[in-house]
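About this split. The held-out portion is used to measure sequence recovery: a designer receives only the structure tokens and must propose an amino acid at every position. Recovery is the fraction of positions where the proposal matches the reference. Here is one held-out target exactly as it appears in the evaluation file.
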């Protein structure tokens, strides 16, 4: 029998050194979590982390007497071992990020083909042809299509793959039941949490590709999962939920909301909403403040704390159809939200607790 996992040690210097120096894939990291109590950070990189990476890269460049072109060559070198010292040094500038995650993030961030906007039909056709000829060799496809490897991969997986059978629009009751059955089989029946560690590409495949990975993820996190937690009834976002969210975000004492790990916001008394929903609701509240684009996180929190200073009573009346409905998940750009699997731990559905 394997030894029990050690308790998490967020400030373990040996673990920090390991994360910055040892290249480990997701399976190895998961094994280290179970056997060694390894703590590391996952999910979207914050704006502060990006600034720290930029500063670390510039410091490395200056200390080594390198040009900007030299650094670009180092970042995109095909000789993985050539830049080990570089990747180790800039990873050490962050806290609890694995070196492999930093490697892939920096290569996306610095990619010369990054951020080219909406795909046009001609590009989609080029991508289809490239995948047909090269398979899913995204770096080679990137050179042919003129988009970054990550953009090509995401465009293919989320929009083009299986397009001939892909459905859009309203989900049927049969589709909802099928998705619930699949997610239950790959999580609950295997002793896993229904909101974590779901590989949506595999879920989409099990649905015959009729719904894409993003469609499955959004349908589950924003609708089906919350209904299951609410004993089958469709829950409604209330003023009490908004109050709890504001005060939970305030309690984190972060400098920017890009630092928030949305999966950690729920607790055993307030868990009905997915991390994806909480992040979307936060963006809606933030954007409701005039001039929010020019405000710091602290200034926004001052305003929202004032608006949500009093605990509202629990909402029991049903919402009128004439009331304004919040935007759906599809209407908010993915770049605004945490990357895939931003979901929440499962527990009871009582919405009366404030951290």
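Reference sequence for scoring:
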């Amino acid at each position: 029998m394997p030894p029990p996992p050690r308790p998490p040690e967020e400030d373990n210097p040996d673990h920090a050194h390991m994360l910055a120096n040892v290249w480990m894939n997701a399976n190895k990291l998961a094994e280290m979590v179970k056997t060694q109590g390894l703590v590391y950070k996952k999910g979207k990189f914050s704006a502060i982390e990006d600034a720290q990476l930029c500063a670390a890269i510039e410091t490395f460049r200056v200390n080594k007497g390198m040009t900007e072109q030299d650094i670009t060559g180092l970042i995109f070198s095909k000789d993985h071992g050539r830049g080990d010292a570089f990747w180790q040094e800039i990873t050490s500038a962050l806290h609890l990020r694995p070196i492999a995650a930093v490697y892939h993030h920096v290569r996306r961030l610095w990619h010369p083909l990054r951020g080219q906007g909406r795909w046009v039909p001609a590009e989609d056709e080029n991508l289809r042809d490239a995948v047909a000829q090269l398979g899913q060799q995204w770096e080679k496809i990137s050179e042919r299509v003129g988009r970054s490897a990550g953009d090509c991969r995401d465009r293919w997986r989320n929009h083009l793959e299986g397009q001939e059978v892909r459905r859009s629009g309203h989900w049927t009751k049969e589709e909802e039941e099928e998705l619930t059955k699949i997610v239950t089989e790959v999580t609950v029946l295997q002793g896993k949490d229904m909101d974590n560690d779901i590989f949506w590409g595999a879920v989409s495949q099990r649905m015959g590709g009729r719904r894409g990975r993003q469609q499955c993820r959004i349908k589950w996190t924003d609708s089906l999962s919350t209904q299951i937690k609410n004993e089958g009834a469709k829950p409604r976002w209330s003023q009490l939920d908004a109050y709890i969210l504001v005060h939970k975000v305030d309690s984190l004492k972060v400098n920017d909301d890009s630092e928030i790990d949305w999966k950690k916001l729920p607790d055993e008394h307030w868990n009905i909403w997915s991390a994806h929903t909480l992040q979307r609701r936060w963006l809606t509240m933030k954007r409701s403040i005039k001039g929010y684009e020019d405000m710091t996180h602290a200034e926004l929190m001052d305003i929202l704390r004032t608006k949500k200073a009093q605990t509202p009573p629990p909402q029991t009346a049903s919402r009128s159809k004439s009331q304004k409905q919040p935007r759906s998940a599809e209407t908010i750009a993915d770049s605004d939200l945490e990357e895939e699997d931003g979901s929440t731990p499962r527990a009871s559905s009582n919405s009366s607790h404030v951290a």
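Annotator remark: The chain has a mean pLDDT of 81.
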